[in-house]
Amino acid sequence: MTGNVKRRLVIAAAALTTAMLTAAPVEAQPVADGYPWRQLMVDTGREYFPIDWLEARVRELSALGMNTLHLHLSDNQGFRLRSDTHPEVNSAQTYSKDEIRALVTYADSYGITVVPEIDMPSHMGQILTNHPELQLVPAHTTPLEAQQDSLLGGPATKIDLSNPAAYRLMGDLLREFLPLFPGPYWHLGADEYVSDFGRYPQLSPYAVRDYITWASGILGASGKTPIVWNDGLNWPGPLGLDPSVIVDYWSAGTAPWIRTGRAPAELAANGNRLVNAGFTPTYFVTGGPAAGLDTPPALLEFWNPRIFVDLSTLPESSRPQLIGSGIFVWCDDPTAMTPDEISAPLSERLAIMAGKLRTR
Questions:
Q1: For residue range 100-139, what is the model confidence (pLDDT) as tens digits?
Q2: Out of 3, 6, 119, 346, which residue is the most buried by the measure of CB atoms under 10 Å away?
Protein backbone atom coordinates (compact mmCIF):
# COMPACT_ATOMS: atom_id res chain seq x y z
CA MET A 1 0.00 0.00 0.00
CA THR A 2 1.51 3.35 -1.05
CA GLY A 3 1.84 6.28 1.31
CA ASN A 4 -0.72 8.30 -0.61
CA VAL A 5 -3.28 5.48 -0.51
CA LYS A 6 -2.71 4.97 3.20
CA ARG A 7 -3.13 8.70 3.86
CA ARG A 8 -6.40 8.75 1.92
CA LEU A 9 -7.69 5.77 3.91
CA VAL A 10 -6.75 7.41 7.22
CA ILE A 11 -8.51 10.63 6.17
CA ALA A 12 -11.59 8.65 5.12
CA ALA A 13 -11.60 6.74 8.41
CA ALA A 14 -11.33 9.99 10.37
CA ALA A 15 -14.22 11.44 8.41
CA LEU A 16 -16.28 8.32 9.08
CA THR A 17 -15.55 8.49 12.80
CA THR A 18 -16.61 12.13 12.84
CA ALA A 19 -19.79 11.25 10.98
CA MET A 20 -20.58 8.47 13.44
CA LEU A 21 -20.18 10.84 16.37
CA THR A 22 -22.32 13.55 14.78
CA ALA A 23 -25.03 11.27 13.41
CA ALA A 24 -28.55 11.71 14.70
CA PRO A 25 -28.68 10.23 18.22
CA VAL A 26 -30.15 6.76 18.61
CA GLU A 27 -31.80 6.19 21.94
CA ALA A 28 -30.63 3.06 23.72
CA GLN A 29 -33.39 1.00 25.26
CA PRO A 30 -32.46 -0.97 28.41
CA VAL A 31 -33.42 -4.63 28.44
CA ALA A 32 -32.79 -7.33 30.98
CA ASP A 33 -29.94 -9.04 29.16
CA GLY A 34 -28.86 -6.48 26.59
CA TYR A 35 -27.85 -7.76 23.18
CA PRO A 36 -27.84 -11.56 23.13
CA TRP A 37 -24.61 -11.77 21.09
CA ARG A 38 -21.60 -10.25 22.90
CA GLN A 39 -18.36 -11.50 21.42
CA LEU A 40 -14.61 -11.38 21.09
CA MET A 41 -13.03 -12.61 17.86
CA VAL A 42 -9.34 -13.58 17.85
CA ASP A 43 -7.35 -14.04 14.64
CA THR A 44 -5.45 -17.20 15.51
CA GLY A 45 -5.08 -18.01 11.81
CA ARG A 46 -2.44 -15.35 11.26
CA GLU A 47 -0.93 -15.35 14.76
CA TYR A 48 -0.79 -18.31 17.12
CA PHE A 49 -2.22 -17.56 20.59
CA PRO A 50 -1.32 -19.99 23.41
CA ILE A 51 -4.15 -21.87 25.07
CA ASP A 52 -3.53 -20.19 28.42
CA TRP A 53 -3.91 -16.78 26.76
CA LEU A 54 -7.25 -17.86 25.29
CA GLU A 55 -8.34 -19.20 28.69
CA ALA A 56 -7.52 -15.82 30.23
CA ARG A 57 -9.76 -14.17 27.63
CA VAL A 58 -12.55 -16.62 28.54
CA ARG A 59 -12.34 -15.50 32.17
CA GLU A 60 -12.26 -11.86 31.10
CA LEU A 61 -15.29 -12.24 28.84
CA SER A 62 -17.23 -13.95 31.60
CA ALA A 63 -16.36 -11.23 34.11
CA LEU A 64 -17.57 -8.57 31.66
CA GLY A 65 -20.86 -10.33 30.94
CA MET A 66 -19.92 -11.25 27.38
CA ASN A 67 -20.78 -14.69 26.03
CA THR A 68 -19.04 -15.60 22.76
CA LEU A 69 -15.44 -16.39 21.76
CA HIS A 70 -15.08 -16.51 17.98
CA LEU A 71 -11.84 -18.17 16.88
CA HIS A 72 -10.69 -17.31 13.35
CA LEU A 73 -8.70 -20.54 13.02
CA SER A 74 -7.39 -20.35 9.47
CA ASP A 75 -6.00 -17.75 7.12
CA ASN A 76 -3.27 -17.31 4.53
CA GLN A 77 -0.57 -17.50 7.21
CA GLY A 78 -1.83 -20.46 9.17
CA PHE A 79 -4.18 -23.38 9.72
CA ARG A 80 -4.34 -23.92 13.48
CA LEU A 81 -6.51 -27.03 13.85
CA ARG A 82 -4.28 -30.09 13.69
CA SER A 83 -5.71 -32.15 10.86
CA ASP A 84 -5.38 -35.91 10.64
CA THR A 85 -7.25 -36.22 7.35
CA HIS A 86 -5.09 -33.58 5.65
CA PRO A 87 -1.86 -33.18 7.64
CA GLU A 88 -0.33 -31.30 4.71
CA VAL A 89 -2.40 -28.20 5.61
CA ASN A 90 -1.11 -27.98 9.20
CA SER A 91 0.96 -25.01 10.36
CA ALA A 92 4.04 -25.37 12.52
CA GLN A 93 1.96 -24.30 15.53
CA THR A 94 -1.46 -25.92 15.82
CA TYR A 95 -4.05 -26.80 18.42
CA SER A 96 -4.49 -30.50 19.00
CA LYS A 97 -7.99 -31.93 19.18
CA ASP A 98 -7.53 -32.56 22.90
CA GLU A 99 -6.51 -28.92 23.43
CA ILE A 100 -9.59 -27.72 21.59
CA ARG A 101 -11.90 -30.04 23.52
CA ALA A 102 -10.42 -28.81 26.80
CA LEU A 103 -10.73 -25.14 25.75
CA VAL A 104 -14.36 -25.59 24.69
CA THR A 105 -15.16 -27.31 27.99
CA TYR A 106 -13.35 -24.60 29.94
CA ALA A 107 -15.23 -21.86 28.09
CA ASP A 108 -18.54 -23.59 28.67
CA SER A 109 -17.87 -23.67 32.41
CA TYR A 110 -17.70 -19.86 32.28
CA GLY A 111 -20.82 -19.48 30.15
CA ILE A 112 -18.84 -18.72 26.96
CA THR A 113 -19.74 -20.29 23.61
CA VAL A 114 -16.81 -20.98 21.28
CA VAL A 115 -17.59 -20.26 17.62
CA PRO A 116 -15.00 -21.73 15.21
CA GLU A 117 -14.21 -20.32 11.79
CA ILE A 118 -12.40 -22.07 8.97
CA ASP A 119 -12.32 -19.28 6.40
CA MET A 120 -13.18 -20.47 2.89
CA PRO A 121 -13.22 -20.12 -0.13
CA SER A 122 -10.70 -17.27 0.21
CA HIS A 123 -7.97 -16.67 2.82
CA MET A 124 -6.78 -20.24 2.15
CA GLY A 125 -3.10 -19.62 1.46
CA GLN A 126 -1.85 -22.07 4.08
CA ILE A 127 -4.20 -24.80 2.84
CA LEU A 128 -3.50 -24.23 -0.85
CA THR A 129 0.29 -24.15 -0.51
CA ASN A 130 0.20 -27.92 -0.82
CA HIS A 131 -2.76 -27.95 -3.21
CA PRO A 132 -1.68 -25.68 -6.08
CA GLU A 133 -3.96 -27.62 -8.42
CA LEU A 134 -6.94 -26.15 -6.54
CA GLN A 135 -5.84 -22.52 -6.66
CA LEU A 136 -8.16 -20.12 -8.50
CA VAL A 137 -6.31 -18.84 -11.59
CA PRO A 138 -7.53 -15.70 -13.39
CA ALA A 139 -7.80 -15.61 -17.16
CA HIS A 140 -5.84 -12.36 -17.27
CA THR A 141 -4.03 -10.04 -14.87
CA THR A 142 -3.00 -6.46 -15.57
CA PRO A 143 -0.33 -4.76 -13.45
CA LEU A 144 -3.07 -2.84 -11.62
CA GLU A 145 -5.02 -6.04 -11.00
CA ALA A 146 -1.87 -7.73 -9.70
CA GLN A 147 -1.38 -4.87 -7.25
CA GLN A 148 -4.99 -5.13 -6.10
CA ASP A 149 -4.68 -8.91 -5.78
CA SER A 150 -1.61 -8.56 -3.59
CA LEU A 151 -3.57 -6.59 -1.00
CA LEU A 152 -5.66 -9.70 -0.35
CA GLY A 153 -2.88 -12.26 -0.61
CA GLY A 154 -2.98 -12.95 -4.34
CA PRO A 155 -4.77 -15.67 -6.34
CA ALA A 156 -2.89 -18.44 -4.52
CA THR A 157 -5.13 -17.79 -1.50
CA LYS A 158 -8.47 -18.58 -3.20
CA ILE A 159 -9.81 -22.04 -3.98
CA ASP A 160 -11.35 -22.74 -7.39
CA LEU A 161 -15.06 -23.27 -6.73
CA SER A 162 -15.51 -24.62 -10.25
CA ASN A 163 -13.33 -27.63 -9.39
CA PRO A 164 -15.18 -30.57 -7.75
CA ALA A 165 -11.98 -31.50 -5.91
CA ALA A 166 -12.20 -28.20 -4.05
CA TYR A 167 -15.42 -29.34 -2.41
CA ARG A 168 -13.90 -32.67 -1.43
CA LEU A 169 -11.06 -30.92 0.41
CA MET A 170 -13.31 -28.35 2.08
CA GLY A 171 -15.83 -31.03 3.02
CA ASP A 172 -13.13 -33.20 4.55
CA LEU A 173 -11.98 -30.33 6.78
CA LEU A 174 -15.48 -29.34 7.85
CA ARG A 175 -16.50 -32.89 8.71
CA GLU A 176 -13.26 -33.59 10.57
CA PHE A 177 -13.60 -30.64 12.93
CA LEU A 178 -17.35 -30.25 13.36
CA PRO A 179 -17.44 -32.79 16.24
CA LEU A 180 -14.88 -30.76 18.22
CA PHE A 181 -17.27 -27.85 18.68
CA PRO A 182 -20.61 -28.85 20.23
CA GLY A 183 -21.93 -25.29 20.21
CA PRO A 184 -24.76 -24.28 17.85
CA TYR A 185 -22.75 -22.02 15.51
CA TRP A 186 -20.06 -22.33 12.85
CA HIS A 187 -18.49 -19.50 10.87
CA LEU A 188 -18.00 -20.25 7.16
CA GLY A 189 -16.03 -17.13 6.24
CA ALA A 190 -17.12 -16.45 2.62
CA ASP A 191 -15.38 -13.06 2.51
CA GLU A 192 -13.07 -11.34 0.00
CA TYR A 193 -13.35 -13.93 -2.73
CA VAL A 194 -13.97 -12.44 -6.21
CA SER A 195 -15.39 -9.07 -7.19
CA ASP A 196 -14.54 -9.06 -10.92
CA PHE A 197 -15.96 -12.29 -12.28
CA GLY A 198 -14.89 -11.30 -15.80
CA ARG A 199 -11.37 -12.37 -14.84
CA TYR A 200 -12.64 -15.81 -13.85
CA PRO A 201 -14.83 -17.19 -16.65
CA GLN A 202 -14.74 -20.64 -15.00
CA LEU A 203 -16.82 -19.30 -12.11
CA SER A 204 -20.53 -18.59 -11.85
CA PRO A 205 -21.26 -15.14 -10.40
CA TYR A 206 -23.28 -17.08 -7.80
CA ALA A 207 -20.27 -19.16 -6.71
CA VAL A 208 -20.17 -17.73 -3.18
CA ARG A 209 -23.93 -18.18 -2.74
CA ASP A 210 -23.59 -21.80 -3.88
CA TYR A 211 -20.65 -22.36 -1.52
CA ILE A 212 -22.68 -21.03 1.43
CA THR A 213 -25.63 -23.25 0.48
CA TRP A 214 -23.42 -26.32 0.09
CA ALA A 215 -21.51 -25.78 3.33
CA SER A 216 -24.70 -24.94 5.23
CA GLY A 217 -26.03 -28.35 4.27
CA ILE A 218 -23.05 -29.99 5.98
CA LEU A 219 -23.53 -27.82 9.06
CA GLY A 220 -27.25 -28.51 9.14
CA ALA A 221 -26.61 -32.24 9.40
CA SER A 222 -24.78 -31.45 12.66
CA GLY A 223 -27.45 -29.04 13.88
CA LYS A 224 -25.29 -25.95 13.46
CA THR A 225 -26.29 -22.48 12.32
CA PRO A 226 -23.96 -20.92 9.71
CA ILE A 227 -22.38 -17.47 10.02
CA VAL A 228 -20.78 -15.53 7.15
CA TRP A 229 -19.10 -12.17 6.54
CA ASN A 230 -21.37 -9.83 4.61
CA ASP A 231 -19.08 -8.68 1.79
CA GLY A 232 -19.36 -12.01 -0.03
CA LEU A 233 -23.12 -11.63 -0.49
CA ASN A 234 -22.94 -9.36 -3.54
CA TRP A 235 -24.03 -11.74 -6.27
CA PRO A 236 -26.44 -10.37 -8.91
CA GLY A 237 -30.17 -10.09 -8.33
CA PRO A 238 -32.18 -11.01 -5.24
CA LEU A 239 -30.39 -12.03 -2.07
CA GLY A 240 -31.74 -15.60 -1.98
CA LEU A 241 -29.92 -16.34 1.28
CA ASP A 242 -31.44 -18.75 3.77
CA PRO A 243 -32.85 -16.60 6.61
CA SER A 244 -31.19 -18.85 9.20
CA VAL A 245 -27.71 -17.61 8.21
CA ILE A 246 -26.25 -15.07 10.65
CA VAL A 247 -24.31 -12.24 8.99
CA ASP A 248 -21.27 -10.46 10.44
CA TYR A 249 -21.73 -7.03 8.86
CA TRP A 250 -18.26 -5.51 8.66
CA SER A 251 -18.06 -3.74 5.28
CA ALA A 252 -20.44 -1.60 3.25
CA GLY A 253 -18.49 -2.51 0.13
CA THR A 254 -15.70 -0.10 -0.74
CA ALA A 255 -12.93 1.20 1.50
CA PRO A 256 -14.90 -0.57 3.42
CA TRP A 257 -17.44 2.06 4.54
CA ILE A 258 -18.62 3.42 1.17
CA ARG A 259 -21.77 1.50 0.32
CA THR A 260 -21.56 -0.57 -2.86
CA GLY A 261 -22.92 -3.79 -1.38
CA ARG A 262 -26.16 -4.92 0.20
CA ALA A 263 -27.34 -2.72 3.04
CA PRO A 264 -28.03 -4.08 6.53
CA ALA A 265 -31.74 -3.32 6.10
CA GLU A 266 -31.95 -5.65 3.07
CA LEU A 267 -30.39 -8.53 5.00
CA ALA A 268 -32.61 -7.93 8.02
CA ALA A 269 -35.73 -7.76 5.83
CA ASN A 270 -34.76 -11.19 4.47
CA GLY A 271 -34.94 -12.51 8.03
CA ASN A 272 -31.19 -12.82 8.62
CA ARG A 273 -29.82 -11.90 12.03
CA LEU A 274 -26.96 -9.41 12.02
CA VAL A 275 -23.89 -8.86 14.17
CA ASN A 276 -22.55 -5.30 13.87
CA ALA A 277 -18.90 -6.04 13.09
CA GLY A 278 -18.20 -2.64 11.55
CA PHE A 279 -14.57 -2.21 10.50
CA THR A 280 -14.89 1.14 12.22
CA PRO A 281 -14.98 0.93 15.21
CA THR A 282 -15.11 -2.74 16.29
CA TYR A 283 -11.81 -3.86 14.71
CA PHE A 284 -8.52 -3.84 16.62
CA VAL A 285 -5.81 -4.52 14.02
CA THR A 286 -2.51 -5.21 15.74
CA GLY A 287 -0.17 -4.41 12.85
CA GLY A 288 0.11 -3.64 9.16
CA PRO A 289 -1.33 -0.65 7.26
CA ALA A 290 -4.89 -1.19 8.55
CA ALA A 291 -3.70 -0.72 12.14
CA GLY A 292 -3.59 3.00 11.42
CA LEU A 293 -7.37 2.92 11.05
CA ASP A 294 -8.07 1.53 14.54
CA THR A 295 -10.63 3.56 16.47
CA PRO A 296 -9.14 4.81 19.76
CA PRO A 297 -10.97 3.59 22.87
CA ALA A 298 -11.94 7.16 23.74
CA LEU A 299 -13.95 7.39 20.51
CA LEU A 300 -15.39 3.91 20.91
CA GLU A 301 -17.07 5.30 24.04
CA PHE A 302 -19.33 7.42 21.81
CA TRP A 303 -20.41 4.64 19.46
CA ASN A 304 -23.86 3.09 19.40
CA PRO A 305 -24.03 -0.57 18.26
CA ARG A 306 -27.11 0.24 16.22
CA ILE A 307 -25.06 2.39 13.81
CA PHE A 308 -23.54 0.27 11.03
CA VAL A 309 -20.33 1.03 9.16
CA ASP A 310 -22.31 2.78 6.38
CA LEU A 311 -23.96 5.00 9.05
CA SER A 312 -27.33 3.32 8.53
CA THR A 313 -29.59 1.93 11.23
CA LEU A 314 -32.29 -0.70 10.92
CA PRO A 315 -35.92 0.34 10.71
CA GLU A 316 -37.96 -0.21 13.85
CA SER A 317 -39.60 -3.32 12.43
CA SER A 318 -36.22 -5.01 11.84
CA ARG A 319 -34.46 -3.91 14.99
CA PRO A 320 -34.67 -7.35 16.68
CA GLN A 321 -32.57 -8.74 13.79
CA LEU A 322 -29.52 -6.92 15.18
CA ILE A 323 -28.35 -9.38 17.82
CA GLY A 324 -25.09 -7.79 18.98
CA SER A 325 -21.49 -6.85 18.34
CA GLY A 326 -18.03 -7.30 19.82
CA ILE A 327 -14.32 -6.65 19.42
CA PHE A 328 -12.49 -8.24 16.49
CA VAL A 329 -8.72 -8.74 16.87
CA TRP A 330 -6.96 -8.99 13.51
CA CYS A 331 -3.25 -9.79 13.21
CA ASP A 332 -2.52 -8.65 9.65
CA ASP A 333 1.14 -8.48 10.65
CA PRO A 334 1.56 -11.39 13.08
CA THR A 335 4.96 -10.07 14.17
CA ALA A 336 3.72 -6.62 15.22
CA MET A 337 2.55 -7.50 18.74
CA THR A 338 2.91 -10.54 20.95
CA PRO A 339 -0.19 -12.00 22.62
CA ASP A 340 0.89 -10.46 25.92
CA GLU A 341 1.29 -7.04 24.28
CA ILE A 342 -2.20 -7.35 22.82
CA SER A 343 -3.83 -8.05 26.18
CA ALA A 344 -3.89 -4.53 27.66
CA PRO A 345 -5.26 -2.56 24.67
CA LEU A 346 -7.73 -5.37 24.03
CA SER A 347 -8.96 -5.32 27.63
CA GLU A 348 -9.56 -1.58 27.41
CA ARG A 349 -11.72 -2.03 24.32
CA LEU A 350 -13.55 -5.07 25.69
CA ALA A 351 -14.60 -3.21 28.82
CA ILE A 352 -16.10 -0.40 26.73
CA MET A 353 -17.81 -2.80 24.33
CA ALA A 354 -19.29 -4.80 27.20
CA GLY A 355 -20.92 -1.64 28.47
CA LYS A 356 -22.31 -0.85 25.02
CA LEU A 357 -23.95 -4.26 24.74
CA ARG A 358 -25.80 -4.12 28.06
CA THR A 359 -28.60 -2.08 26.46
CA ARG A 360 -30.22 -2.12 23.03
A1: 999 999 999 999 999 999 999 999 999 999 999 999 999 9
A2: 119
Dist CA 295 CA 298 (whole Å): 8
How far apart (Å, rounded) are the C-alpha atoms in residues 325 and 295?
15
CA dihedral 306, 185, 332, 89 (to 10 degrees): -170
On whether the CB atoms of residues 80 and 74 are closer than 8 A, the answer is: yes
Reported confidence tier of residue 145, pLDDT bands at 50, 70, 90: confident
Residue ranges of alpha helices (H) inside 110-204 are 125-128, 143-151, 164-177
Identify the CA nearest to 134 among candidates 155, 103, 152. 155
Rounded to whole angstroms, how far apart are CA atoms 358 and 360? Answer: 7
Pairwise CA distance, residues 86 & 90, whole Å: 8
Please enumerate in sequence order all residues whose Cβ is within 8 A of that of 102, keeping only pairs 6 or more positions apart, or say none: 51
The amino acid present at 122, given as its one-letter code, is S
Length of the chain in terms of residues written: 360
Q: How far apart are CA 216 and CA 8, in angstroms?
A: 38
Name the CATH topology of 38-356: TIM Barrel (3.20.20)
